[in-house]
Write the structure tokens for this entry.
Amino acid sequence: MHEFMTNSTSISEPEIRYRRIRRIAGVMTVVCSLLALLLLPCMIAVWSFVEHIPRMPLPAKLLHNLSLTDRIGAIAISMLAAGLAAWGLVSLAQLFARFRQGDVFDLRATILLRRFALSVLLLPVAQAVVEASTTAWLSRNTAPGEGVITISLSSDGILFFVIGVLLMTVAWVFHDAAAIAEDNRMIV
């Protein structure tokens, strides 16, 4: 029975893995591209309905009676972190597109991985700046001494930072592997 299955299978194990990588990479190219495109509409939606969002990292007293100017300013400030996330997602979509084409060990792929790693690494910093800037913006018209600036550090932010460092290290290793693969292609 085992012989029959081995002889009847015309697709090799590496080919099966390559097809799986191409399929996953194709799906992730679309997913990352869509996520990057949806960040601005999501920021607009969040600030349009912020009073109804239960767990905003901002003082609740700042989120009542927001004017259109307050909301537009908050959207603009939020785009700092959202823009960084979009840049990372676009880089990741391009990386997956290269994987789908079979360009795994090339120098361009390492640059894309490094960009994504940098965005993950910097995202907690950007989120802290956005939080501080948003609270300062929303409390700009309060009475003297009642202005608010908040900055929070979460376990999510710490985890993002650590994952960013890990991804950056993997990108460096990936770069060395791509350089070796390029050298080998030149020799042959």
Confidence is low (pLDDT under 50) at residues 1-8. The chain is about 75% helix and 0% strand.
